[in-house]
């Protein structure tokens, strides 16, 4: 198997490394470059992954994953540039896989040796439990080989989909940030249950099982009574909504309070922020 080096062992770096280990990848094939020594040690203890410096990662990696904050990407790429320049671009040089929100492949390529294969990916944190949604777009020098290599790696930790790079900022707003919207919804539901008198542990069990079960229905073909097409959220919602019943009362309140509009605005705000992060780097 190829050696994967991750620059940045923070939340998403850990989700990838931990997810790969959980999927059976040998820790010896995984490397992390982490600026904070205590954090690197923590990852070593937790997953048995070796910490190296940027130059060593650039020397040994077949896939070099950039998982630092968008503003730290230029410095991180500068640290590996010269070693990468010493490796031939025709198969010896690693594929650079960027997980950074907003940063276009053209900006990444401009800070890397000419002809480096770059794949821009927007992952999400369910990667840690093998349930990621990873959205991929190739850079100018990334062909089918590099895309397939990246997909093969990420398939171990969830699902992958290719999109034109013009849709990456919107993908970031939907699936990259999306888990946070679901967690906020869960938190708010639990708090509402507690406010109305249910013990927190019970409310938490009810809500988390409900989110998991609803996710299962959304992703199980045929769950809305139709065969051969992806389940429609509206049909699943209708099946819960008895005429004159409790769900209709709740949904009427949510619509009146503007939940749908709030979500549309939230996704647009996240998309715009992703675009702005890319401009700041440029
Ligand atoms: N957290 C999330 O849900 C997602 C994050 N991302 C992207 O992943 C990237 C990282 O985000 P997080 O993991 O949340 O941030 P984080 O702040 O948790 O992790 C970044 C890590 O990189 C380290 N670091 C910074 N510069 C470094 C360098 N030059 N060399 C080595 N290590 C360095 C920091 O010490 C830190 O541990 C961002 O670009 C973000 O846009 C993408 C999808 C989802
Ligand atoms: O909040 C962020 O900027 C990152 C990108 C997607 C999820 N977390």
TrEMBL record:
Catalysed reaction, written as an equation:
L-proline + NAD(+) = (S)-1-pyrroline-5-carboxylate + NADH + 2 H(+); L-proline + NADP(+) = (S)-1-pyrroline-5-carboxylate + NADPH + 2 H(+)
Please provide the record's keywords in A-Z order: Amino-acid biosynthesis, Cytoplasm, NADP, Oxidoreductase, Proline biosynthesis
Q: What positions does the domain Pyrroline-5-carboxylate reductase dimerisation occupy?
A: 165-275
Q: Which Gene3D superfamilies match?
A: NAD(P)-binding Rossmann-like Domain, ProC C-terminal domain-like
Q: Which gene encodes it?
A: proC
Pathway per its UniProt entry is:
Amino-acid biosynthesis; L-proline biosynthesis; L-proline from L-glutamate 5-semialdehyde: step 1/1
* UniProt keyword annotation of Amino-acid biosynthesis present: yes
Task: List the top taxonomic levels of the source.
Answer: Bacteria, Bacillati, Actinomycetota, Actinomycetes, Pseudonocardiales
- The main place the protein resides is cytoplasm
Q: Which HAMAP family match?
A: P5C_reductase (MF_01925)
User: Which EC class does it fall in?
Assistant: oxidoreductase
Record protein name field = Pyrroline-5-carboxylate reductase
Please state which protein family the record places this protein in: Belongs to the pyrroline-5-carboxylate reductase family.
**Pyrroline-5-carboxylate reductase catalytic N-terminal domain mapped to chain residues:** 3-86
Q: What is the annotated localization of this protein?
A: Cytoplasm
What does the record give as the function of this protein?
Catalyzes the reduction of 1-pyrroline-5-carboxylate (PCA) to L-proline.
Question: Does GTP-binding appear among the keywords?
Answer: no
Highest rank taxon of the organism: Bacteria
Entries under InterPro entries matching the protein: 6-PGluconate_DH-like_C_sf, NAD(P)-bd_dom_sf, P5C_Rdtase_cat_N, P5CR-like_CS, P5CR_dimer, Pyrroline-COOH_reductase
Enzyme Commission no: 1.5.1.2
Q: Name one GO molecular function term.
A: pyrroline-5-carboxylate reductase activity
């Amino acid at each position: 198997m190829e050696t994967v080096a991750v620059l940045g062992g923070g939340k998403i770096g850990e989700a990838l490394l931990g997810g790969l280990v959980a999927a059976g990848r040998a820790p010896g094939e995984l490397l992390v470059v982490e600026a904070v020594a205590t954090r690197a040690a923590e990852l070593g203890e937790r997953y048995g992954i070796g910490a190296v410096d940027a130059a060593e990662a650039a020397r040994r990696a077949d896939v070099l994953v950039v998982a630092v904050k968008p503003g730290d990407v230029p410095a991180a790429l500068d640290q590996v540039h010269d070693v990468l320049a010493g490796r031939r671009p025709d198969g010896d040089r690693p594929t650079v896989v960027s997980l950074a929100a907003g940063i276009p492949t053209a900006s990444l390529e401009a800070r890397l040796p000419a002809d480096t294969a770059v794949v821009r990916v927007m992952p999400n944190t369910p990667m840690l439990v093998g349930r990621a949604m990873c959205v991929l777009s190739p850079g100018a020098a990334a062909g089918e080989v590099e895309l397939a290599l990246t997909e093969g790696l990420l398939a171990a930790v969830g699902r992958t989909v290719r999109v034109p790079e013009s849709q990456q900022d919107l993908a970031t707003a939907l699936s990259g940030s999306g888990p946070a919207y679901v967690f906020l919804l869960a938190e708010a539901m639990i708090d509402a249950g507690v406010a109305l008198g249910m013990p927190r542990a019970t409310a938490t069990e009810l809500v988390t099982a409900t989110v998991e079960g609803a996710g299962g229905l959304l992703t199980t073909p045929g769950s809305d009574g139709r065969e051969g097409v992806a389940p429609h959220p509206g049909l699943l919602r209708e099946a819960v909504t008895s005429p004159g019943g409790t769900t209709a009362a709740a949904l009427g309140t949510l619509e009146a309070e503007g939940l749908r509009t709030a979500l549309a605005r939230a996704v647009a705000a996240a998309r715009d922020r992703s675009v702005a992060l890319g401009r700041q780097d440029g």
